[in-house]
Specification:
The structure is a single chain. Helices cover 78% and strands 0% of the residues. The chain has helices at 2-14, 18-21, 26-55, 64-107, 119-140, 147-171, 177-185, 188-199, 207-231. The longest helix has 44 residues, at 64-107. The two termini are 12 Å apart.
Length: 236
């Protein structure tokens, strides 16, 4: 638990460094611009397709008006995770080297770099994580109306995606291939708790604009601290 709280605290402090402030909003803004442009060009077609799918459902007469609104709601439910995962992917692929450099230089300058990960590994890991996340998002949409269980589903999905996507990039430069496999496999509940807490930021207006970079910082702090502990002979 101490690793989780310390990672969140240190990430919050590093967020206000000039090098971080210069890029903190860029991943989410880039994702919003990308999907905004796509929605501008293809939104009418997407909406017509949604309406066509929902039109095949045998709605009761009193729900015909609701069915029209449902197409907009369903499209929004699909666009929200698309924007979310795009911002995360941009952060992991483009900005994580900067975040790792800042965190390691300030907090772990003596930690040896074993280069156990690679750019190809990062892209492959990100593609797998995003593809599986979006598939599970689509498959679980009908269950979101099941009270507290339904509300917990997006939190659990976000937690899995966050730790899967960011921990690899946080450790790729410093951990050996064996250390990287071990730390990702043995993360346990502290890793998923950190991932779940960070995932909640995406549901908070305004804070969600800086969430991807803050998340990258927190996972970098967590990963490098665990790696340092592991090399010192402690459990990790």
């Amino acid at each position: 638990m101490s690793f989780v709280l310390e990672s969140l605290r240190r990430a919050a402090g590093d967020l206000f460094m000039p090098r971080i402030l210069a890029v903190v909003f860029l991943p989410m803004l880039a994702a919003l611009l990308l999907w905004g442009a796509l929605a501008w060009g293809f939104g009418a077609s997407w909406l017509a397709h949604m309406q066509g799918l929902l039109g095949e459902v045998p709605w009761p007469d009193w729900m015909l008006g609701v069915a029209g609104v449902a197409a907009y709601a369903l499209l929004a439910l699909l666009l929200i995770p698309a924007i979310y995962v795009t911002a995360l992917f941009i952060t992991a692929l483009v900005f994580m080297p900067l975040l790792v450099e800042v965190v390691s230089g300030k907090h772990h300058p003596a930690l040896a770099r074993m280069h156990g990960g690679s750019l190809i590994g990062s892209v492959a890991n990100g593609a797998y994580a995003l593809a599986l996340y979006l598939l599970l998002w689509l498959l679980t949409l009908p269950f979101w109306l099941l009270g507290p269980f339904g509300a917990a589903l997006p939190v659990l999905l976000n937690a899995w995606l966050n730790q899967r996507l960011f921990l690899y990039d946080a450790l790729a430069e410093h951990a050996s291939a064996e250390e990287l496999r071990h730390l990702r496999r043995e993360g346990g509940w502290p890793l998923y708790l950190l991932a779940a807490l960070l995932g909640l930021l995406h549901f908070v207006p305004l804070l969600n604009l800086l969430a991807p970079v803050y998340m990258g910082l927190a996972f970098t702090h967590y990963g490098l601290a665990r790696l340092a502990q592991y090399r010192e002979g402690g459990t990790a």
